[in-house]
Amino acid sequence: MTEDEKFFAWLDGELGPAESAEMEAKVAADPELERLAEQHRALGARLRVAFDPIASAAVPDHLAATLRAPAKVVDFAAARRARSMPSLPQWAAMAATLALGIFVGTMVPDRAAGPVEVQAGKLYAAASLNQALETQLASAPADSVRIGMTFRNGAGEICRSFTAQASSGLACHRNGRWQLKGLFAAPEGQGGSYRMAAGMDPSLAALVDSSMAGEAFDANQEKAARDKGWR
Amino acid sequence: MDQSSSFEGQLAELLPRLRRFAHALSHDSADADDLTQATIERALRSRDRWQEGTRLDSWSYRIMRNLWIDTARSRSRKIAREVPEEEGLSIGEDPRDAMDAAVDLKRVMAAMGRLPDDQREVVALILVEGFGYREVSEMLGLPIGTVSSRLVRGRTALLAMVGER
């Protein structure tokens, strides 16, 4: 293994205890390596935030149906030919939204006070977004951030969906912070006028749907949860 | 009959993760779902070759990867060739400031699409799907050193492409 490979193997938790301790000491003593480690942890987090919503989304009917009716065998090429526009699965629209990506940078122009920060490979709300998630109720007039639904996820954490200019997303409260579970750009051309009221972004809706345990909070529950610090 | 329903049941449980892998392999979402469909069908046809007690996820991922290589080889080569050389070399600027202010998943997903196939599959399996080096080495039939070196090249190229803006 080259030193490079060893460094990344350490980052991925692939080294044995002795080698791992050795690499850890080496990285701790070298700011360049430390910086590289942080960059690559952040890259891993970005990859997961980019692709995880696909695994959280509802599986299109035609795929699930294949497993219910295994007799029907279609090859890859035939499936492509058979794809008809009218029945284009909801996923296509969702992927288009996803593929447009996330432009958190456009939410707050000030780079120093961005609405998202990376720590230990996870994405957290910061600045105006954090402020809104902490204090703002869904009934509040839309400021730069608008809060959508509040609910508990399967892990018992309180999660809130939000819309901020051309993006919308979901954050869950954990250890006193709002961790981003997904973030989606509005479809092209809807950026300025994009509002929760116009319908939730389909990929966000899928993420909310797969995260929610029980019912969404009503206004009283939402306010009570805020008063208790979202625990 | 019980056995077959459980095989299908297990495949159904894997479906969301298989779709995620398909979307990491193919930047085109319609192609990714076709690839998922083809993988399920191949898995159902080849179920006799799956050994009970071994991991169905690794087995299914391998089927998907082989189908992808079979159907997309020529196109992927073309895409890989189109990556401008400078893009792979422009390491240096500290991207963390930009990270704080702007997470651009479009760039991340598009950059995955510009990696060569052999690096993309390893990056997807380890960094997105969470497999270990050894699992991927067995899944792809590659020496672990090859997995490790492709992963280094892939993630380094990826960071160079998306790290700055």
Describe the structure.
The complex is a heterodimer of chains A (231) and B (165). Helix content of chain A is 44%, strand content 17%. Chain A is α+β, with helices and mostly antiparallel strands. Chain A folds into 3 domains: 3-55, no CATH class; 56-90, no CATH class; 104-227, no CATH class. The relative contact order of chain A is 0.11. Helices cover 75% and strands 0% of the residues of chain B. Chain B has helices at residues 2-25, 29-45, 56-82, 96-101, 105-114, 117-128, 133-140, 144-162. By secondary structure, chain B is mainly alpha-helical. Classes of the chains: A alpha+beta (231), B mainly alpha (165). At the A-B interface, helix 1, helix 3, helix 4, helix 5 and helix 6 of A face helix 1, helix 2, helix 4, helix 5 and helix 6 of B.
Secondary structure: elements and pairs:
The complex is a heterodimer of chains A (231) and B (165).
Chain A: H1 3-11, H2 17-28, H3 31-56, H4 61-68, H5 76-82, H6 90-100, E1 116-119, E2 122-125, H7 127-135, E3 145-152, E4 158-164, E5 167-174, E6 177-185, H8 202-211, H9 219-227
Antiparallel strand pairs in A: 1-2, 3-4, 4-5, 5-6
Chain B: H1 2-25, H2 29-45, H3 56-82, H4 96-101, H5 105-114, H6 117-128, H7 133-140, H8 144-162
Helix pairs in contact in B: 1-2, 1-3, 2-3, 3-7, 6-8, 7-8
Question: Can I get a quick summary?
Answer:
The complex is a heterodimer of chains A (231) and B (165). Chain A has 231 residues and is α+β, with helices and mostly antiparallel strands.
Q: Architecture of the largest domain in chain B, according to CATH? A: Orthogonal Bundle
Task: Kindly report the average pLDDT value of chain A.
Answer: 75
Distance between the termini of chain B: 55 Å
| Poorly predicted parts of chain B | 80-103
- The CATH class designation of the largest domain in chain B is Mainly Alpha
Shape of chain A: globular
CATH superfamily descriptor of the largest domain in chain B: RNA polymerase sigma factor, region 2, helix turn helix motif
Binned, the helix content of chain A reads: 40-55%
> Biggest β-sheet of chain A, characterized?
4 strands, antiparallel
Poorly predicted tracts of residues of chain A: 70-113, 188-198
Alpha carbon gap, first and last residue of chain A: 46 Å
Broad structural category of chain B: mainly alpha
Overall number of domains of chain A: 3
The total count of helices of chain B amounts to: 8
Strand content of chain A: 15-25%
3D shape of chain B: globular
Largest sheet of chain B: none
DSSP E strands of chain A, number: 6
Mean pLDDT value of chain B: 79
Helix- and strand-based class of chain A? alpha+beta
Alpha-carbon Rg of chain A, integer: 21 Å
